[in-house]
Design a protein that fits this description.
Distance between the termini of chain A: 35 Å
CATH class of the largest domain in chain B: Alpha Beta
Strand content of chain A: under 5%
Protein name (chain B): ABC transporter substrate-binding protein
Radius of gyration of chain B: 26 Å
Subcellular location (chain B): Periplasm
Strand content of chain B: 5-15%
Largest sheet of chain B: 7 strands, mixed
Structural class of chain A: mainly alpha
CATH superfamily of the largest domain in chain B: Periplasmic binding protein-like II
CATH architecture of the largest domain in chain B: 3-Layer(aba) Sandwich
Number of helices of chain A: 14
CATH architecture of the largest domain in chain A: Orthogonal Bundle
Number of strands of chain B: 7
Shape of chain B: globular
CATH superfamily of the largest domain in chain A: MetI-like
InterPro entries (chain B): Bact_solute-bd_prot1, SBP, TAT_signal
Number of helices of chain B: 21
Number of domains of chain A: 3
Main location (chain B): periplasm
Largest sheet of chain A: 2 strands, antiparallel
Number of strands of chain A: 2
Pfam family, one (chain B): SBP_bac_8
Order of helices and strands of chain B: HHEHHEHEHHHEHHHHHEHEEHHHHHHH
Structural class of chain B: alpha/beta
Oligomer: heterodimer
């Protein structure tokens, strides 16, 4: 007999009902095997909790070794004047010095500018492109084309754009100059424009990621809601903001979080394009961190910068989640 | 190991199994390449002082060495000809090449972590020698070792061009030699004599002297020339810019660019230390004094009339600008002459370019009472041996170090890919002497007179500053200078900022 009791609105009760259905009742178990042949035998019978911990233990141990151990070592290093292979304990000196280090503070400000510009443009353009692609009959081809920039290693993308921006033979330089957007100096040669140049490269390479994710989100927007709203006389624009966007928030959250963290980590193209210059115009914090750790070999100071970067990333990540969760909660 | 239904119709490799096999393969390949590719190995046959030279060269036959070098012509040429070394010694040498910043990072990690994955290393004087000098073998102890073969010409200062051994071999001590001069990049002026001749009348009408360039030309003349060409260009004439600086993203060459001008005026240097040996405690910097502020003003004035891409042009890009005919003059490293003289890639080839020493200081711009000199700087790449390597491996590496810096090898490189010799004796070869005149089979030789007979000699040559914090020093100089050139700071503010940051860096 099938359990036809109505599904409760209470999640706990729903879970209990499902659980009850899985753990066959005594009545069901007592039936002859022939009567229940259509019901597949469960491959996942409930097991004691510790069983799952045992199963996860090897993975947890490996993860701890490759991730937690270096993390704690990073903390120790940040409290030392450290050389590779040894160091001298200096307490919080590395952290204290950071606050009087103009290059560190400038790095934060530049990173904030860079991230806001990249994320803003990528989300705006990415969603727009997703809508266009979603309504196109050439969707498959467009998606393939959009994937191409992402397939490129960031350092290679940096090199490609370095050539395109080149003031002597660069094609984009010629276009920008012909259009009157640039004066004689190339886009990378001016402290006023170099930041836009590196933002453009990031936007070119990673907007497709937002597009692909947003496209997946668009596929799950309920058509009945869209149609009902249209019947009520809503314009396509209102439909987009009232129905489509709220449904996109969960997937956009993932996309924005990914790109936000990437902007704090990926410096390949920036290093290739400008190396942080001219002056310090594009020396975003991760670039400065790379310099300190692997050019100046000041690993203690580098570890302190890395930890501050990590802490801020976590805090901002949490804030972003809240910002994106809010409209959903309101909707709910 | 993996579940397969008994009723399966065919044996198939599942996607998971396929990925697992791929993972195993990649791991094995990676481990294998690390084990076979990077590790140096040593095999030795004992020799005595009285053994033959052949036995001494062959004593480490069967060994394997790894040499990490910048991607410069000698390393490419030697790699192409590495069989000659193998035939001589039986030692296999793997030469890995990369851009200097990458070489610098890899060397630093190898040396400071106590490893010796790279037994032989390219010791570029300031970026690698200054911070890591303590991690290299003192070669002077091997010079007199009778159980090792030795170069007939020896390794003293007289065997190399003036100051070269000090540039890459001596750091913080006059006695220890950590590297032998392997290749060199010396600053020299490249200028378009065809354009100078063409516009000399107009120039003379405006400035009162002929548009010429020679060893007596000063930085003031360079400023005049750059101003003249820029004015012509802005007036609609089809002419290039007059001059361009190295202010791109590589901090070291950016620092060298401003150092030439600073040193030319009263032999101004950053710290009051022995310029040739350097110091681990350089003390307070001279940035911020009246001479440095004046020089920054002049450097900014020159930038304002130079090619507009100054702040994007590193050394290589700058040479491309010159090759493409977009500037009439550049101070460039003499190793680039070969590319400038290549008619396939350069509009400045075919006798259009002439070479002369770096500009001289302008007497009126000297406030510190020093002499006006043709401030010339360099990057002397040495070959050094990782002191973390076992002693036998160090001795085997020594064989390669002396072979790769020997006269015949340097001559072969010069003939082949356009090398830059470091041994004096190479210049005495008749073919090399002949090549210093056009038409030349070895275009780099066209610069030799300006470089070897003039630029590298005292009082023109500046080697330092050799300080342990050299790389952060380069970064600070580059960053602050570029900010000034961008208009973010005045010369006074720039000098003050440099003073503050450098004194903080050196805890002075």
């Amino acid at each position: 007999m099938t359990d036809v009791s109505p599904i409760s609105a209470n999640p706990r009760e729903v879970a209990a009902q499902i659980f009850r259905a899985r753990a066959h009742s005594a009545e069901v178990e007592a039936r002859p095997q022939s009567e229940i042949t259509n019901k597949p035998r469960s491959f996942n019978p409930p097991m004691p909790k510790r069983y799952y911990y045992y199963l996860m233990a090897p993975a947890i141990a490996i993860l701890a070794f490759i991730s937690l151990y270096p993390f704690f070592w990073l903390i120790v290093m940040s409290l030392q004047d450290v050389d590779i292979g040894g160091g001298e304990w200096v307490g919080f000196k590395n952290y204290v010095k950071l606050f009087s280090d103009g290059r560190f503070l400038d790095g934060w400000w530049l990173l904030a500018q860079y991230s806001v510009m990249c994320l803003g443009l990528q989300v705006g353009l990415g969603v727009l492109l997703a809508v266009v692609v979603n309504s196109s009959k050439y969707e498959k081809y467009l998606v393939t084309a959009l994937l191409m920039p992402m397939m490129m290693a960031p350092a290679v993308a940096g090199l490609l754009w370095l050539f395109l921006y080149n003031g002597t033979f660069g094609w984009y330089h010629w276009i920008l100059q012909s259009a009157g957007i640039l004066d004689n100096a190339s886009i990378l040669a001016s402290a006023n424009t170099a930041m836009y140049a590196i933002v453009l490269v990031d936007v070119w390479q990673w907007t497709p990621l937002i597009t692909i994710i947003a496209l997946a989100g668009l596929k799950r927007v309920p058509r009945d809601q869209l149609e009902a709203n249209m019947v009520d006389g809503a314009s396509p624009l209102r439909n987009f903001f009232a129905i489509t966007m709220p449904n996109l928030y969960p997937v956009l959250l993932i996309a924005v979080l990914l790109r936000f963290m990437d902007n704090f980590r990926f410096i390949d193209s920036v290093l290739v394009l400008t190396g942080g210059g001219p002056g310090s115009a594009t020396k975003i914090l991760p670039v400065y961190l790379f310099e300190v750790a692997f050019k100046f070999f000041k690993l203690g100071r580098g570890a302190a910068i890395a930890l501050t970067l990590l802490i801020v990333t976590i805090i901002l990540g949490k804030l972003l989640v809240r910002v994106f969760e809010k409209p959903q909660n309101e909707k709910g | 190991m993996f579940y397969r239904p008994k009723t399966a119709q065919a044996t198939r490799i599942s996607r998971r199994r396929f990925l697992e096999l791929g993972g195993y393969g990649a791991t094995m390949l990676g481990t294998g390449s690390l084990a076979v590719g990077l590790n140096s190995t040593i095999m030795s046959t004992p020799v005595q002082a009285a053994s033959s030279d052949e036995a001494k060269w062959k004593q480490y036959a069967g060994s394997k060495l790894t040499f990490l070098s910048e991607n410069t012509p000698p390393s490419f040429a030697i790699r192409d000809n590495i069989k000659a070394f193998y035939d001589l010694t039986g030692i296999e040498v793997e030469i890995l090449t990369d851009d200097l910043p990458v070489v610098q990072q890899k060397c630093g990690i190898d040396l400071r972590s106590g490893k010796s994955d790279y037994t032989l290393q390219y010791v570029q004087d300031k970026p690698i020698g200054s911070p890591f000098a303590d991690f290299y073998v003192d070669l002077s102890k091997m010079f007199g070792d009778e159980t090792l073969p030795q170069d007939m010409e020896g390794y003293g200062d007289d065997a190399w061009f003036e100051n070269f051994l000090s540039a890459c071999g001596r750091f913080y001590s006059g006695e220890k030699i950590i590297a032998l001069p392997y290749d060199a990049a010396i600053a020299v002026t490249f200028f378009r004599q065809d354009l100078f001749e063409k516009h000399t009348k107009d120039f003379e009408a405006e400035y009162g002297y002929r548009l010429e360039y020679n060893a007596d030309s000063t930085w003031k003349n360079v400023l005049d020339i750059a101003t003249f060409f820029k004015k012509l260009k802005e007036g609609g004439a089809d002419v290039p810019y007059g001059y361009a600086q190295h202010q791109g993203s590589f901090a070291w060459t950016t620092q060298l660019d401003i150092q030439r001008m600073m040193f030319a005026h009263g032999r101004w240097i950053d710290f009051n230390i022995d310029d040739k040996i350097g110091s681990k405690e350089p003390g307070p910097t001279n940035w911020g004094d009246a001479q440095s502020v004046l020089m920054l003003e002049k450097f900014k004035a020159l930038a304002d009339v130079s090619h507009p891409d100054n702040l994007a042009n590193g050394t290589l890009e700058l040479n491309t600008v010159y090759q493409s005919g977009n500037i009439a003059m550049q101070v460039q490293y003499h190793e680039f002459a070969a590319s400038v003289e290549d008619a396939n890639t350069s509009v400045a080839a075919g006798g259009k370019t002439a070479y002369a020493p770096c500009p001289k200081g302008e007497a009126d711009w000297i406030l510190n009472g020093g002499p006006a000199v043709n401030g010339t700087n360099c990057g002397i790449g040495g070959i050094g041996i990782n002191a973390n390597a076992p002693e036998e491996l160090q001795r085997a590496a020594y064989l390669f170090a002396i072979w790769s810096t020997s006269k015949n090898i340097q001559y072969d490189v010069l003939k082949g890919l356009g090398g830059t010799p470091t041994r004096k004796s190479v210049l005495e070869i008749p073919e090399v002497q002949a090549a210093q005149q056009r038409p030349s089979a070895m275009p780099n030789a066209l610069t030799f007179d300006a470089v070897y007979n003039y630029g590298i000699k005292d009082p023109n040559f500046v080697l330092g500053p050799k300080i342990p914090e050299a790389n952060e020093y380069h970064s600070i100089i580059a960053s602050e200078t570029q900010r000034m050139l961008s208009g973010d700071m005045s010369p006074e503010e720039t000098a003050a900022s440099l003073k503050s940051q450098l004194d903080d860096l050196n805890e002075a």
